[in-house]
Structures are given as C-alpha cells and as structure tokens.
Amino acid sequence: MVNEHTDDKINFFAIKMELWQIGDSSLAPKFQIISKPNDWAKIVKKSSKRGELSGVALQQLEFLNNFVDYSKKKNSHINFSKPQYATPAYYSTGIGLNECYIVVKLNTQQGILKIDVYFRDRNIFNKLQEKYKEIINEKISEKLIWDERSQYNQPAIGTSINFNIDNMANWEKYFEWLKNVSEKFQKVFIEYVKKIK
After folding, report:
1. How far apart are CA 56 and CA 25, in angstroms?
2. pTM reported for the whole predicted model
C-alpha cells in the first residue's frame, strides 16, 4: 500500500465516495475509508516526535511489525501481538504456558537473530534439563543453548542465526525461521512442561 512507501511525515487515506438518496431527498455524499495509515506508521510518528528511537531502533521496529504481520498471514498458532516501540530490539510473547514465554532479540551490531524460551520457575527448567534435554534438543532440531543463568536472572533455552537487518530481501526467510522455531518451542514445551508438573 502507499503508506508503506512513504516516510513518517506523510500518510495517505483512500476514500470511496458514494451518492445516497433516501426517497425524494436530494443526493448526499457518503464517504467510506478504504485504506488508512497502519499501526507502524502511527507508532513511528509518535516515537519520532518524542525523540526516543534512533534509526536502527526504527528499523528493528519495522522488522518486528512485519514479522507479526507475516505470522498472522501464515496462520501461526502463536498469537503474536504488536511490539512496543520502547524496546524494539527485544520482543516477548506468550506461548500458552504461565511457566515460560518467548523472547526474540535483534542484535544488529553483531548480526545475530536470537529466540529464547525463558522460564519463570527455575525448578521446571532444571527438571526439563535433567529428564528431557536430549529429546527436546532432537525435537526442536536446532542447536539449543541451555542457559542456567541468563542475563535476565531467569533460565533460558534458545537458538540463533546470523542475519543482516539491512538486507530486506532476506526478511521473509528470517520471519519463516522465527515462526517455525516459535511454533516448535510452543508445541514441545507445552508437552514436556505438562509431563513434569
């Protein structure tokens, strides 16, 4: 759409005009909005006015919003919500368990796209590691890092790939990887967390 190809100072509305007549009354215009600026444009505009986001952060926000839209179009089982503009390099979402949640991290400086499952309960992480580590590694079929003491003081299990956020031609490939790994995490961890509860 036009709004996707303009800067944050310009947005377009597409209006359809119809002429309506009730009985013998004069013709009257009726306006219907066909297209309007998307949520990303509104967020970017608001955050830019506040001076809170750098160019890199705006790019990260655009990446994450496009990922959420991509996942919805692909009918992902995970309900990805719109990311918050305040922390565009860090995006979290639930997977249907109170005990854990997914975090996507965009490290544009090092060129790393990372996805982790964080555990609120260290005992659950420990039991999964003791009883099911090998089978979880096999089912996820990614190189998993089991991190007992993450930087957020919650144990995490995650994986990563190299990426270049500037290469927009590869964004869809990154989106597909994120969606697939997220869905594997959801399926596997729901199954094995329930086994140890």
Report:
1. 56
2. 0.72
CA nearest neighbour of 67 among 166, 176, 184? 176
Run of H or E including 50: helix 39-50
Provide the b/e sequence for 70-83 (b: ≥16 CB within 10 Å).
Answer: bbeeeebebebeeb
CATH 3.30.1460, the chain: domain bounds: 52-196
Each residue's pLDDT tens digit, 101-152: 999 999 999 999 999 999 999 999 999 999 999 999 999 999 999 998 766 6
- Residue 6, token pair as written in the block: 């303009």
Task: Give the pair of three-digit tokens for residue 85.
Answer: 């503009």
- Torsion over CA: 189, 195, 196, 197 (sign): positive
- The answer as to CATH 3.30.1460 being correct for domain 52-196 is yes
* β 112-119/156-162 pair status: antiparallel
Q: For every residue of 87-117, which 3-state class applies, written as one string? A: CCCEEEEECCCCCEEEEEEEECCCCEEEEEE
Q: What's the mean pLDDT when you consider all of the chain? A: 82
- pLDDT band of residue 48 (cuts 50, 70, 90) is very low
